[in-house]
Automatic annotation (TrEMBL):
It comes from the Bacteria. Gene3D superfamilies: NAD(P)-binding Rossmann-like Domain (3.40.50.720). Residues 7-196 form the NAD(P)-binding domain. This is Putative NAD(P)-binding protein.
Length: 224
C-alpha cells in the first residue's frame, strides 16, 4: 500500500510513517521544511517538500500519484494565530482532498480534534481562547467539506487530549467519545488500522472519537 501523509514531520505522522514502513508499506511524507527530510528517512519514509499553504491542486496531485490513501496530519502548530488555523487546518485539508480526487486516491483520513462540536452553528464555547476557538472552527470546516464529497472515502478521527506517553495498545474508539486523553502512539496505531479499512472498502463510521480505553486497538478499529 502507498500512503501519503501531509504534515509528515509531526509527532503522530512520524510514528504512523514508521509503523507503516515497518510492515512494508510505501510511505511518503509531505513537509514544508527540507531540513526535516532526514528525520523522515530515519523513519523509513520518503519525503517531498511541498507547502500546502501555497501549493496548487496540480502540485499536490502530482505528489499523490499512485497513492491508496492520504492522511492529513498537518497543523498550524503552537504559537500560530487564528489566521493560520484557517489556512492550514481548514484550507490545506481541503486542498489535499481536491488533489486526492484529481489523482484518483480512494481514501482520505483527516486527523481532527475532540471538541469541534462546541463551535457548531457558530457557537462560541465559554472558557476557550480566541485562537483555540479558531482552531476548532477550522477543523469543523474541514470535516464538513470532506464529509460532503462524493467519490472519496473519508474517515474523520477526533483524538482526545494528546500525550507523549508510551502507547498502551488499548483505546476507546467510537462516535460518542468526546473527552479524555490518548497517547500519540495509540493515535498512530488507530490511524493505520482505519486507513486499512478505507483502502479495502470497509469504511468505518465517518466520524470517530478516540481516547484511552480498554479495547485493543485492532479490535476497536474492527468494530468502528
Amino acid at each position: 500500500m502507498r500512503i501519503v501523509i501531509a504534515g509528515g514531520h509531526g509527532k503522530i505522522a512520524l510514528l504512523l510513517g514508521a509503523a507503516a514502513a515497518d510492515r512494508g508499506d510505501e510511505v511518503v511524507g509531505l513537509v514544508r521544511n527540507e531540513a526535516h527530510l532526514d528525520d523522515l528517512r530515519a523513519a523509513g519514509v520518503s519525503g517531498v517538500v511541498l507547502d500546502l499553504e501555497s501549493a496548487s491542486v496540480a502540485d499536490v496531485a502530482g505528489a499523490l500519484t499512485g497513492a491508496d490513501a492520504v492522511v492529513f496530519a498537518a497543523g498550524a502548530g503552537p504559537g500560530s494565530g487564528a489566521e493560520r488555523k484557517d489556512t492550514v487546518d481548514h484550507r490545506a485539508a481541503v486542498l489535499l482532498a481536491d488533489a486526492a480526487q484529481r489523482a484518483g486516491v480512494p481514501g482520505y483520513l483527516l486527523i481532527s480534534s475532540i471538541g469541534v462540536d462546541r463551535v457548531r452553528d457558530g457557537a462560541t464555547p465559554s472558557g476557550v481562547d480566541e485562537v483555540f476557538t479558531a482552531y476548532l472552527r477550522a477543523k469543523l470546516a474541514a470535516e464538513e467539506d470532506l464529509l460532503a464529497r462524493d467519490g472519496l472515502r473519508v474517515s474523520v478521527l477526533r483524538p482526545a487530549s494528546l500525550t507523549d506517553d508510551p502507547g498502551t495498545g488499548s483505546v476507546r474508539l467510537a462516535p460518542d467519545v468526546d473527552s479524555g486523553r490518548v497517547t500519540r502512539a495509540d493515535v498512530a496505531a488507530a490511524v493505520l488500522g482505519l486507513v486499512d479499512r478505507l483502502v479495502d472498502g470497509r469504511a468505518p463510521a465517518p466520524v470517530l472519537g478516540l481516547a484511552e480505553g480498554d479495547v485493543p486497538v485492532a479490535e476497536a478499529v474492527a468494530r468502528a
